[in-house]
């Protein structure tokens, strides 16, 4: 949680933002979200991404050990 992610979506779309929450269906809440389209970046704020749209999720920051 609260780590920066890069999320690849279907239809060849990609967003980068901060993970705020998720559920068992991989519905994801992302804050400070930016849609990246080539050299163009569009700030879209806080979004909920439906799990059926998610292709890959990549952490852009180190993720610590679980306690």
From TrEMBL:
Top-level division of the source organism's lineage: Eukaryota
Family: Belongs to the snRNP Sm proteins family.
Organism: Durio zibethinus
Subcellular location: Nucleus
Domain Sm, chain residue ranges per copy: 1-63
Gene Ontology CC terms, in alphabetical order: catalytic step 2 spliceosome; P granule; precatalytic spliceosome; SMN-Sm protein complex; spliceosomal tri-snRNP complex; U1 snRNP; U12-type spliceosomal complex; U2 snRNP
Residue ranges crossing the lipid bilayer per the database entry: none
One Pfam entry name: LSM
GO molecular function: RNA binding
InterPro entries: Lsm7/SmG-like, LSM_dom_sf, Sm, Sm_dom_euk/arc
Gene: LOC111296596
Function: Probable common Sm protein, is found in U1 and U2 snRNPs and may be part of the spliceosome.
GO BP, one annotated term: mRNA splicing, via spliceosome
The protein, known as: Probable small nuclear ribonucleoprotein G
Record keywords: mRNA processing, mRNA splicing, Nucleus, Ribonucleoprotein, RNA-binding, Spliceosome
């Amino acid at each position: 949680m609260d780590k920066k992610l890069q999320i690849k979506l279907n239809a060849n779309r990609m967003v980068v933002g901060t993970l705020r929450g998720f559920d068992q269906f991989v519905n994801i809440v992302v804050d400070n979200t930016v849609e990246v389209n080539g050299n163009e970046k569009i700030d879209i704020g806080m979004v909920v991404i439906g799990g059926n749209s998610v292709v890959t999720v990549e952490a852009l920051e180190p993720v610590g050990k679980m306690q």
